[in-house]
Design a protein that fits this description.
heterodimer, A: mainly alpha, B: 219 residues, mainly beta, Acetoacetate decarboxylase-like, 15-stranded mixed sheet, globular
Chain lengths: 210, 219
């Protein structure tokens, strides 16, 4: 990434807390009395956010922390992600094109996912993030940059779906802004990443020429 | 499933109960006049610190033990460094808030945009303490005098990520005076507010407090 992106990227523990707050806010919008199509959009949005977040943690945060810490919360994090993915798969199977036909089972399954995530977030923020802030102090910024780069790659194929489900789930006033923000963040990130990739390729070429 | 224990027709309970919340328990409340420039360090630039006298604002420290709440029993510590105003509304700015319940943490962030963090909080008759990595504080209370039942109302503002909110708080409690000695760890900056010295506090027993629905600005 270039110097601008490096300066504006928060460190990895801040990014993880921001992700947690974001998904909790989406959870809060879900109510049993919503229309099926809105429920489906909210669940799709939350599940995409959770999948991307889990993959980022597994690829970047947990390996870095595992190198300096042995902790039972860390050991059970990936099995909890696996449980979360099972719930997400079940929710996708239950949702029709226009939303779930059996609303109550769908609510119950989504609330089950919410409870699991809340418990996981609490464990992570109580034990793992403070440990990372203590043990990986000098690496938190670099890990934050790695996470941002990888997030852009992971979000790119889902940008349209994220923007669409955001529009359908946010209150009318905030929807357009939030969707633009989602699409814009991916576009800007991809541009920064692209510039960096191009520059790296040019550097390699120039080194080769000399 | 516990959520269906009320019978087949009972609605499934969401894990994050909607506002307003009514909580029952006890609390220790400390008020302090602090320098506005110090308080401003804990407040975002777009939020105006309200001066109650030249160069000074009002800060408060709130420690509570809720025996009953929509998410069960939990403990809480709030630091509000200043009385602030934004978009014509006035309230205490909540800069730091710690709870020992994951569900309370999740609900606080999602519903009221409160920057809640998890901390281990020990509550006893003599005070409150926390020695976790997130928060290191020790508060001891002595000399609780006579108490009378009083109503209270207030308002607060907070920010979590880009979401900001304002909400009203009202309730009643048996309120008495005591003296408390509070110590924050030096490295988290909260000690700068001056709660470190021995302070007069209000001890609230048999408290019932309702946290109103938030008005949000920004997402």
């Amino acid at each position: 990434m270039n110097a601008v992106a490096d300066r504006i990227t928060p460190n990895i523990t801040t990014l993880i807390r921001m992700d947690h707050s974001h998904v909790l806010a989406v959870f809060h919008r879900y109510r049993a009395d919503l229309l099926p199509a809105k429920k489906r959009a909210l669940v799709t949005n939350a599940c995409l956010l959770l999948e991307i977040h889990a993959q980022l943690e597994e690829e970047i945060f947990y390996p870095a922390l595992r190198a300096v810490l042995r902790d039972d919360v860390l050991e059970k994090s990936e099995p909890e992600h696996a449980q979360m993915r099972t719930f997400i798969g079940e929710l996708r199977d239950m949702a029709g094109r226009e939303g779930p036909s059996n609303g109550e089972s769908y609510d119950e399954k989504f609330f089950e996912l919410m409870r699991l995530v809340i418990h996981h977030v609490a464990d992570e923020e109580t034990r793992l993030l403070p440990a990372a802030e203590r043990l990986l102090r000098d690496d938190l910024g670099r890990l934050g940059i790695d996470m941002t780069k990888r997030r852009i790659e992971l979000m790119k194929p889902h940008a349209a779906e994220l923007a669409e489900t955001t529009v359908r789930t946010f209150p009318a006033g905030a929807a357009a802004g939030a969707a633009l923000l989602t699409a814009g963040a991916v576009a800007v990130g991809a541009m920064l990443l692209g510039r960096n990739t191009k520059r790296t390729a040019e550097n390699r070429m120039s080194r080769w020429r000399h | 499933m516990a959520a269906l224990s009320g019978g087949a027709d009972a609605p499934v309970e969401p894990p994050l109960p909607a506002a307003p919340w009514t909580l029952h328990g006890e609390a220790i409340v400390g008020l302090k006049i602090v320098r506005s420039d110090i308080a401003q360090r804990f407040v975002p630039p777009d939020v105006k610190v309200v001066r109650i006298c030249p160069g000074r604002t009002l800060a408060f420290l709130y420690l509570a033990h809720y025996q009953h709440s929509p998410v069960g029993e939990y403990r809480e510590l709030i630091v509000a460094p200043a009385l602030v105003s934004r978009h014509g509304r006035v309230g205490f700015w909540i800069s730091n808030i710690y709870v020992d319940s994951g569900t309370s943490m999740a609900a606080g962030r999602a519903i009221w945009a409160l920057p809640k963090q998890i901390a281990s909080l020990e509550w006893s008759a003599g005070g409150v303490s926390s020695v976790g990595p997130q928060l290191r504080v020790s508060a001891s209370v002595a000399g609780t005098g006579r108490s009378i039942r009083l109503p209270f109302v207030g308002a607060a503002m907070s920010q979590c990520g880009s979401a900001k909110s304002w909400f009203a708080v009202r309730g009643s409690a048996r309120v008495g005076h005591a003296r408390a000695s509070v110590e924050f760890a030096r490295d988290d900056g909260l000690a700068a507010l001056g709660f470190g010295s021995t302070t007069k506090v209000f001890v609230c027993k048999k408290m019932r407090v309702t946290i109103g629905r938030p008005r949000h600005s920004g997402q």
